[in-house]
Design brief:
Structural class of chain A: mainly alpha
Largest sheet of chain B: none
CATH class of the largest domain in chain B: Mainly Alpha
CATH class of chain A: Mainly Alpha
Radius of gyration of chain B: 23 Å
CATH superfamily of the largest domain in chain B: MetI-like
Number of strands of chain A: 2
CATH architecture of chain A: Orthogonal Bundle
Largest interface: A-B, 99 and 101 residues
Radius of gyration of chain A: 24 Å
Oligomer: heterodimer
CATH superfamily of chain A: MetI-like
CATH topology of chain A: MetI-like fold
Number of domains of chain A: 1
Strand order of the largest sheet of chain A: 1-2
Helix content of chain B: over 70%
CATH architecture of the largest domain in chain B: Orthogonal Bundle
Structural class of chain B: mainly alpha
Largest sheet of chain A: 2 strands, antiparallel
Strand content of chain B: under 5%
Shape of chain A: globular
Number of helices of chain B: 12
Helix content of chain A: over 70%
Order of helices and strands of chain B: HHHHHHHHHHHH
Shape of chain B: globular
C-alpha cells in the first residue's frame, strides 16, 4: 500500500522505455560487434557466416600483443601520473575555503569544458617542431635542433595526462569533501602529527573513492583513439587505433571486431579486479562520485 | 571553522598553481597564435587578420549549426528517456538486478571507439542511412545513462510526503505527477539536459563513425582542418570556442542550481 501511495500508475511502463532504449541502442549493437568477431572475412572482402575463433587466435600474434601491452602500460603510467598530480590539486582545493575554493574549481573546469579536440589541438601546436616549447628553447639556445615530442610516445603520454587530469581531481576532491573534519581533529587531539593524521585518518577514508576515480580514468584511456592518433602518429597506435584501421583500411570487419572483443575483455578484467578489491557498497558509491 | 582551515602546505599549493598554469598553457597559446602574423613565430607581430577571416568563411557556419541542432535534439531525447528511466526505477534502484545495473552502466563504461563502431555496424545492418538522425540517436544512446543518474539523485531529494499529501488532498496520479513531481524534478532535468548537450557538442568519436560522408559537426571540422595541416582559420575558431566555453562555465556557475553540475563535469 505504501509504495502504491508514492508512485503514480504509469511508472513501470516508463522504466521499460529506458531499459528498452538501452537494450536496443547499446546492448544489441555491442552484441553485433561481438558476434561479428566470430565470423570470417572471405578473400573477396565479404563476410562469411562461418563460426570460428580464428580472429581471436590471430589477435594473439606478437604485433597485437605488443600493442595491447603498450596500451595497458601507457594507460597505467598516465593514470598514476594523474594521481600524483591530481591528489595535491584536489587536496589544496578541499582544504581551501570560500571564494578561493570556488575560484579554483572554476579555473579547473574551464579547460575541462573546452572542446576535447581543441585541447588536443592546443597540445599539438604547443609540442610541435615549430611550437611554443621548441621556439622558446631554441631562442634561449638551450637546444640546437627542435625536440621531438610530437608524434612520439612522450607526446601520447602528455596528451593522456593533460586530458584526463581534471577527471581524476573531481572524485578525489569529492571524497575529501565528504571526510568529516572532526575525524582529523580527533587524530590531532590524540597526539598524532600531520603526517600520521594524513596516512592513518585521511588516506584510509578516501582510498575507495580515489581508487574508483582512478579506474574511471584508466578505463577510457585503454579505449583511447584520438590522442594516440593525433599526438602519436602511426607508430604509437593503441588497441583502438588498430581496431579502427582494421575496419576502415584493411576492410577486415571480423578481425577489427575481435580486437573490440579483446578490449572489452580487458575492461571486464579491470572491473573484476576492482570488485575483488572492494566491497560492492563502496563500488556503488564510487560510481556515483565519479560519474553522476 | 577557522581551526579546520589551516594554512595549506606550500608544496601542495605550488603543485596546484603549476597544474593550473599548465592546464591553461595550450589554450592560451592557441589564443596567442590567433593574433600572430605568423602563428608559428612569436616575433612576427600582431594582427586581427585571422579572426576577421573567420567571419568570412561560410564553411564553418554549417558545422556549427549542425553541432547545435544535434546537441539540442539529442539532449532532449536523452532527458526524456533518462527521466522516464529514473521515474520508473527510482523505487527499485537499490535492489535492481545486476543485469539491469550493468545495462545502465554499459554506455558509460564502454570505450567510445567501441560504442561508435558498434552503432555503425548496427545502422549498416538495418540499412539506415547515416547522417543527421543517426548522430542524434547515437549521442542520446550514451547520454541517457548520465541523465538517469542525475535524475535518480534529484528524486532522492524529493520528499515522498509531498505526493502523499497531494493524494490525501484528492489529487489523481496524473495530477500528482504534473503538479507535484515534475515541478520538483525540473531543475535536475535542466542539469541533465545541459550535461547531455555538452557531451554531444563535445563529442568527436561517435559522430566520426555515425555521421557518414555528408555531415560535418564542429569537432569533425576541427579534426579535418588539423589533418590538412594547421590553418590560421583553425586558430581563429579555437579562440572563439574557448571564449564560448569560458562564458558558458561562468554563466552556469553564477546560477545556484546548475553550479553543482558544472563543477562535476
Amino acid at each position: 500500500m505504501d509504495t502504491q501511495l508514492k508512485s503514480s500508475k504509469p511508472i513501470p511502463l516508463t522504466a521499460l522505455v529506458f531499459i528498452g532504449w538501452l537494450f536496443l541502442m547499446t546492448f544489441i549493437p555491442f552484441l553485433i560487434i561481438l558476434g561479428m568477431s566470430f565470423l570470417e572475412r572471405t578473400p573477396l572482402g565479404t563476410i562469411s557466416f562461418h563460426f570460428s575463433f580464428n580472429n581471436y587466435l590471430r589477435s594473439f600474434q606478437y604485433i597485437y600483443i605488443k600493442v595491447l601491452l603498450k596500451t595497458v602500460w601507457l594507460a597505467l603510467v598516465a593514470t598514476l601520473s594523474c594521481l600524483a598530480i591530481g591528489f595535491p590539486v584536489a587536496y589544496y582545493l578541499a582544504r581551501s575555503g570560500g571564494w578561493l575554493k570556488q575560484l579554483g574549481l572554476v579555473l579547473l573546469f574551464i579547460p575541462f569544458w573546452t572542446n576535447f579536440i581543441l585541447r588536443v589541438y592546443g597540445l599539438v601546436s604547443l609540442l610541435g617542431n615549430h611550437g611554443l616549447i621548441n621556439q622558446l628553447l631554441l631562442e634561449w639556445e638551450l637546444i640546437k635542433t627542435p625536440l621531438e615530442i610530437l608524434y612520439t610516445r612522450t607526446g601520447v603520454y602528455l596528451g593522456l595526462l593533460y586530458n584526463y587530469l581534471p577527471f581524476l581531481v573531481v572524485p578525489i576532491f569529492s571524497s575529501l569533501e565528504k571526510l568529516d573534519p572532526s575525524l582529523r581533529e580527533a587524530g590531532f587531539d590524540l597526539g598524532a602529527n600531520r603526517i600520521q593524521v594524513f596516512w592513518k585518518v585521511v588516506v584510509p577514508n578516501i582510498k575507495e573513492g580515489v581508487f574508483v576515480g582512478s579506474l574511471f580514468v584508466f578505463i577510457p584511456m585503454l579505449g583511447e583513439y584520438v590522442i594516440p592518433d593525433l599526438l602519436g602518429g602511426a607508430k604509437e597506435a593503441f588497441l583502438g587505433n588498430v581496431m579502427v584501421s582494421q575496419f576502415f583500411v584493411m576492410q577486415d570487419w571480423p578481425f577489427g571486431s575481435a580486437i573490440a572483443g579483446m578490449l572489452s575483455l580487458l575492461l571486464l578484467i579491470t572491473l573484476w579486479i576492482q570488485t575483488r578489491w572492494s566491497r560492492i557498497g563502496g563500488f556503488r558509491n564510487g560510481i556515483d562520485n565519479a560519474k553522476s | 571553522m577557522e581551526l579546520i582551515m589551516r594554512k595549506a602546505n606550500p608544496f601542495v599549493a605550488t603543485i596546484f598553481f603549476i597544474a593550473i598554469f599548465l592546464l591553461y598553457t595550450p589554450l592560451f597559446y592557441l589564443i596567442l597564435q590567433t593574433f600572430l602574423n605568423n602563428p608559428y613565430d612569436l616575433k612576427s607581430g600582431f594582427t586581427f587578420r585571422w579572426l576577421l577571416k573567420l567571419f568570412h568563411s561560410p564553411s564553418l557556419l554549417e558545422p556549427l549549426m549542425n553541432s547545435l541542432e544535434i546537441g539540442v535534439l539529442s539532449a532532449s531525447l536523452a532527458v526524456t528517456v533518462g527521466t522516464f528511466g529514473a521515474l520508473g526505477l527510482f523505487e527499485f534502484s537499490a535492489l535492481l538486478p545486476t543485469m539491469i545495473q550493468s545495462l545502465i552502466m554499459l554506455p558509460i563504461l564502454l570505450p567510445e571507439v567501441i560504442t561508435g563502431l558498434s552503432l555503425l555496424l548496427f545502422f549498416l545492418l538495418l540499412h539506415i542511412e547515416l547522417g543527421f538522425a543517426t548522430v542524434v540517436v547515437a549521442h542520446a544512446s550514451f547520454s541517457a545513462s548520465f541523465v538517469y543518474f542525475i535524475m535518480l539523485e534529484q528524486l532522492k531529494k524529493l520528499d515522498p510526503q509531498m505526493a502523499e499529501v497531494a493524494q490525501d488532498l484528492g489529487a489523481k496520479p496524473h495530477q500528482i505527477f504534473w503538479k507535484v513531481t515534475l515541478p520538483n524534478i525540473l531543475p535536475g532535468m535542466m542539469g541533465g539536459w545541459l550535461l547531455a548537450f555538452t557531451l554531444s557538442f563535445d563529442d568527436f568519436l561517435i559522430s566520426f563513425f555515425t555521421s557518414g560522408a555528408g555531415l560535418t559537426t564542429l569537432p569533425l571540422k576541427i579534426y579535418s582542418l588539423m589533418r590538412i595541416g594547421v590553418t590560421p582559420e583553425l586558430n581563429g575558431l579555437s579562440f572563439l570556442m574557448i571564449c564560448i566555453s569560458t562564458f558558458l562555465v561562468l554563466l552556469l556557475v553564477s546560477k545556484e542550481q546548475s553550479r553543482k553540475w558544472v563543477l562535476r563535469g
